[in-house]
TrEMBL record:
Keywords: Cell outer membrane, Membrane, Signal, Transmembrane, Transmembrane beta strand, Transport. Belongs to the outer membrane factor (OMF) (TC 1.B.17) family. PANTHER family: OUTER MEMBRANE PROTEIN TOLC (PTHR30026:SF20). Its main location: membrane. GO terms for molecular function: efflux transmembrane transporter activity; porin activity. One of its GO terms (cellular component) is efflux pump complex. This is TolC family protein.
């Protein structure tokens, strides 16, 4: 009984030692909604884009500060003495304020330009969200496909093993020759390789999805979903409207508007600037409270006369920027329309191809079922039978590829439309 008791204790200890490892290797299952939520909360590109928006908002507040009063206060003092006289002190204080009254709308134009820059940075944030969603969706589909490929490869390998056992029996009985046996062995070797290849692809897809979720450490992941598109394909979309609602187009439009306000600000540099200033204080007093308070108020006017042509050159530069962005806006609009038309065509083609490949798979499955029975009865040759078997394998792979391509094409179409992480 002692050896049996010792063996039982060792087995229990080994079991508990394996539990943490088994827990660490547990596969986490995610659906598409969970992936969207996690990426939106943790992806570093989105955090970077959000900080860029905050920078532009802060810059707008900085520029807007030029329209508000400026107030400053100062105070100071000194104390001196000598061996022949008692120490004496002198103190001073002052408060000064100034307010812009007129500068030819230069500051207000700069504020408007900064406001448009804030809009541009927010549209840029949407662009980052679009790119992040596309990369995330692509990684999600790749993992979904990899999972299916592993299952399909194992299914094919099992069938190849069954075929090899059948051919081996027929070869031993003298019904089949060595060529048929070699072909069955090669088919099995290929199937085993494809199983290993599919598993490596699965591991890679898990890493890629983990990084697109914003995870520094990636473990075993599994996703759930169907190989069906959620986007409608019944009616052709309005490419003009979609292009003009794209975050990329709106970003460039906001940049152009900001440049337009910058041009107005550059032109305002030829106008005079008028400030109201006031202040009070005492420049020198020896005791508290001060013996007097001095004050002053006035209006300061500055008129630009000549600056070496820099102001004129600044206007010319600002005008060129506006013209450049206007041309870029037109070019981008045309490019977006081309991209939308191409993405839509690819999406429609992929959707139709799934139906075609499904029919091919149904036909290949039926032919293989009949051929199996005929080959077992000796009604068809090995060559005819193995061709039908290979066609079935190809049809299964083609159908999976068509389903996967449909989801990839849908992701590209959503990206072309400007779909963000909030677009589901």
């Amino acid at each position: 009984m002692r050896p049996l008791g010792s063996a039982l204790i060792i087995a229990v200890v080994q079991l508990f030692a394996c539990l943490p490892q088994a827990s660490a290797l547990a596969t986490e299952t995610l659906d598409w909604a969970q992936c969207l939520a996690e990426a939106a909360a943790h992806h570093p590109d989105l955090r970077s884009a959000a900080e860029s928006v905050r920078q532009s908002e802060a810059q707008r507040r900085i520029v807007k500060g030029g329209m508000l009063p400026s107030v400053s206060a100062s105070a100071g003092g000194e104390r001196s003495g000598s061996s022949a006289a008692a120490p004496a002190g002198a103190w001073s204080y002052g408060v000064n304020a100034s307010q812009l009254l007129f500068d030819g709308a230069k500051t207000s134009s700069e504020v408007n330009s900064a406001t448009e820059s804030v809009k541009a940075s927010k549209y840029n944030e949407s662009e980052v969200s679009v790119a992040t969603r596309y990369a995330l969706r692509t990684a999600f589909v790749e993992l979904l496909t990899a999972q299916k490929q592993v299952s399909l490869a194992q299914e094919i390998m099992t069938k190849r093993k069954q075929n090899l056992r059948l051919i081996a029996l027929l070869y031993k009985s003298g019904t089949e020759h060595i060529g048929s046996l070699s072909k069955a062995q090669a088919d099995l070797a290929e199937a085993e390789f494809e199983v290993a290849q599919a598993r490596r692809g699965l591991e890679l897809a898990q890493v890629v999805l983990g990084t697109q979720l914003g995870r520094a450490a990636t473990g075993a992941l599994r996703v759930t979903g169907r190989f069906t598109a959620s986007q409608q394909t019944r009616q052709s979309p309005d490419f003009d409207r979609i292009a003009k609602e794209s975050p990329t187009y709106l970003n460039l439009t906001a940049q152009k508007d900001a440049a337009g306000y910058s041009l107005q600000a550059a032109r305002s540099a030829f106008m005079p600037s008028v400030y109201l200033s006031t202040g009070f204080g005492n420049s020198a007093f020896r005791q508290l409270p001060p013996d007097r308070t001095d004050w002053q108020a006035g209006i300061d006017v500055s008129v630009p006369i000549y600056a070496g042509g820099s102001v004129k050159a600044g206007v010319a530069r600002a005008r060129a920027v506006v013209n450049q962005l206007s041309a870029d806006e037109e070019s981008l609009y045309l490019s977006l329309k081309r991209s939308l038309a191409q993405a839509w065509k690819s999406f429609i083609d992929a959707s139709g191809n799934v139906d075609v490949q499904k029919k091919f798979l149904a036909a290949a499955s039926e032919r293989a079922r009949i051929a199996d029975a005929q080959y077992s009865a000796g009604l068809v040759s090995f060559n005819e039978w193995t061709i039908i078997e290979d066609n079935l394998v190809s049809a299964k792979k083609s159908y999976l590829n068509a389903q996967s391509n449909l989801l990839f094409a849908e992701a590209a179409w959503v990206q072309a439309k400007g779909g963000t992480l909030e677009s589901r």
